[in-house]
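Q: Here's a chain of 669 amino acids. Please give me its 3D structure as C-alpha cells.
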Amino acid sequence: MRDANSFYITTPIYYVNDVPHIGHAYTTVAADVLARYWRLRGRDVFFLTGLDEHGQKVQQAAAKSGIDPQAHCDKLAPQFQDLWKRLNISNDAFIRTTDAPHKSVVQRYLQELYDKQLIYQDSYTGWYCTFDERFWTEKDVADGLCPDCKRPVEKLSEHNYFFKMGQYQDRLIDHIKQHPTFIRPESRRNEVLGFLQTQKLGDLSISRPKSRLSWGIELPFDRDYVTYVWFDALVNYVSALEYLPKNPALDQFWPASVHLVGKDILTTHAVYWSTMLMALNLPLPETIFAHGWWTVDGEKMSKSRGNVVDPNKMVDAFGADAFRYFLLREVPFGQDGDFSQSAMVASINSDLANGVGNLLSRTLTMIERFAGGAIPTAGSPAIPEIETRIAAAAATLPATVEHGFGALAFRDNLQAIWELVGLCDEYIDKAAPWQLAKNPEHLPRLNTVLNTTTKALRLLSVLLYPYMPHTAQQLVKQLGLSLDLSRPLPPSAYDWETPLPGVRICKGPGLFPRIETKPQGAKPVSDTPAPPQPTPAAPATTSIPPSPTPTASSPTPQAPAPAQITIDEFLKIQLKTAKVLSAERVPKSDKLLKLQVSLGTEQRQIVAGIGKKYEPETLVGKTIVIVANLKPAKLMGIESQGMVLAAGDTEVRGLATILEDVEPGTKVK
C-alpha cells in the first residue's frame, strides 16, 4: 500500500496524433495545481503525464507520411512536452507507451492474466470504427455511422483475445458503494453505478490481429496479435512507477491518489481499469475524478468548425499564469465550461490586473512614499472593524484552501482567496492612507494599514503559488521576502501573524498589465463635451427685434434660459452606473485623471477633469455615473471612452456617485 505521506497524481496519457488543445491543458494544469500544493505541504508527490503512441491511426498516419511509426511518434511528442514547459507544468515523469520498459510490464501482466485463465480467444463480429479504434454492436450503430465520432464504420469478423471482465461486475459494484470517493464527482459515480446495475457487463476484447494492426505491443502468448490500446494505455499508471523514478516506487505510490480524466473516458477507467486491477490483485486507485468538457463560445469544439483553442496561442497572448487562472476559475471543476476570449480578458482585467495586481502596486507604492521602502511595524488600529475581518479571513483561509484541495474544488478556493483581496481593497479605500500620511499624529495608523496589506500579500503569495507559480514568485520577490516556494513550507508560512517589519521591498513591473479591448455594445464615449452646434439661421421672412438697451428704469437683463429639449431628445442620452477599478494621474496635468471603470459587461477608460478635487486612490471602488453614448475623444493623447458626471461651475465641487450597492452598468433614469 502507498506510503501515507505520498501523493500520486496522474493525467490520462494523451493520444500522440492529437493537436494539444484546451482540454489537454485543463486536465494537466489541474493536476499540476494539486501536485504543487501538496509538495508545499510536505507530501512526497509523484506527478505523471505522458502519451499513448500505439494504434491504427498512428500506423496509418505514419504510412501516409512515408515514415516509420516510431519516427512519427518521436516527431509529434515534443508538441506536448514543449507545451507543458510553457504552462509551467511540474510533472515528475513523462511516459510514452513506446518505452521499452513499459512494453515489458504490459507483456508481463498479460502473461499473468493468461496464466490465470482470465484471457481466452474467441471469434467476434461487430461494427468497427477505425477513428476510435473500437467495435460497436448492432444496436449502437445508426445509418452506418459510429455513435461517437459519426464517421462510417465497417463490419469485421475476426478472432481476438478477451479479458474476463464480466466476472468482476458484482465486486466492482460493491467497491463503488463502499468507497464514496472512488468515483467523483457524485454525478459521475451515479452514472457508473447506474450502468453496472442495469446491464450485464461483457468481456473485453484486448487484442488486434497483426494482419490488421501491427503497431502495438505484441501478445507474449501469441505473436500474431498485438494488445488493444486500452490494456496498453491504462497499464501506464503502474508501469511508470517501475522504471521512471530513480528507484522502483510501486510500493511507495500505488494505489494512485487521484486519476484525473475527462468524462468521455470515465467508463474505461472506472470499469475496464478497475477490473484489470482486480484481476491482477492490485489495489484500486483512491479517486478517479472525471471533469467536464469545454465548449467554445457555446459551440462544441472541433477541427471542422475551426474553433479549437490552442493553449500555445493563449500563452502567447495572455501569459501562462493568466491562462491557468482562467481555466480553474471559470467553472466548478467537474462541470462543463464554455471558453470565450472576451470572458478571459474580462477575468484578467477584473481579477488579476485590478485585483491582486492593483493591490500589490498600491501597497508597494505607499510603502515607498510613506515608509521609506521598508515594511513598517503595525501601530494603532486604523479601522478596527475591517482589520478584524481581514485577520479572521486570513486565519481561516489556509484550512479552507486545504479542504478545497481535498475536494478538488479549485474554483471555490480561488473565490475564497479573492475575498481576502477584496477585503484589502475595501480597507485601503476606507482607511485612506494617503490622507493619514498628511498628519504625523496618524503615523501609527498609517503603519498599521501598510503592515496589514503587506501581510495579506505575503499569505496570498503562498496560497496562489499552486495556481500561478510565476505570479507568486513575483509577489515574494517584490515584497522582499525570502520564501522558497519550490520546497515544502513550514506551518508558519500559513500563519497570519508571521512578522515582516523592516523587510525592504523591491518594487517591480505590474503583475498583470490591463488588456485594452475595443468597446462593444454601447459606443465608446469621451469625457469631452461635444462641440457646440451652430444655431440654424432664421427664415428670411422673420423679423427679430433688437434687445432693449438697459436704462436706469429698465430691469437688469437675465441670462437666457437654457434651450429646452423634448423627452425624446433626453432619452437619447444613456446614463449608466460604473465602478471605478483603478485611477491614476495623467502625466503633465494637475486636472486630468485616467480611470478604468467597469460597466458590468464591459470595461472602459475614461479621462476626467477631476484631479484637483480628488486623489486617485480615493476613487477606486466607488460607483459613479457616466454618459455612455458619446463619441470617443482624446485628451492629452489618451483616449477617453466616457463622460463622468460631476457638480460645479468653473471648478468641480462634487462627483455624482451612487450610495447603494448597484450593479455596474445599471441604467440611471
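Q: Can you summarize the key feature?
A: The chain is about 40% helix and 20% strand.
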